[in-house]
Amino acid sequence: MPAAYLKDSFPVLIAHCKAVLDKAYMVQKLVATTDTLPGWEGYPVKLYQYETGKDLYTGQPKTGMVYLLNPSPQKLAMWIATACWTVKGSVDSKYTDSLLKWINGQSNAQFPVKGVVYEDQYTRNFQEPYVFKDGVTVYVKDSTMFPRDKTCTLAQLAFYLRITNDDLKPQTGQYARIASTRREDYISNGGTADVGDAANRKIKWLSVVRDLYKKAWNSDENELIILWAKDHL
């Protein structure tokens, strides 16, 4: 990556990343920081309690609990610049801004390690809960531990913070935070783990995403972002 870019333009990208992270809606009340969460030992995972906006149907905000491992503005900017340089051979703002815009739209650059993520994905202001583990949407086996009315109880919130793969159905969501990387992106670029595909979304994807994100945490490269960029940027 050109030294001139790091000196002159990179600080602008950092500022843009800070603007995104400053609006990360689950970063509200910090409950705890831990580096002993199973599977994430040694990483500074933060537990947050947060409230949504007023729900369309209840008229009240909903409360969520989630462990997050979000990058700093500098780390996010470096991941983005490195991905653009790797994939496009360029750190022109048309690439870096496009990639940041995509990440912001997909996740606000929030990486849910474990817990519930409320989103009004399909109906504006209808806050629906999605359970996450290792940056991927998952589905719990026990139907009583998922709210039929889409408002999680305190017991359900606590359960999501301690789930293991044994608590989950064998099929998971498709997309990996923070760039909505798909299994197909991983496989088409040389991934060898048996993660399945869009029609057979094997739970192995969780450990692949977890390992790649942990690797990225102490690196200038986030392979999950690079994999997405290779197929879509």
TrEMBL record:
Superkingdom classification of source: Bacteria
Name of protein: Cellulase
Source organism (scientific name): Niabella soli DSM 19437
Highest classification ranks of the organism: Bacteria, Pseudomonadati, Bacteroidota, Chitinophagia, Chitinophagales
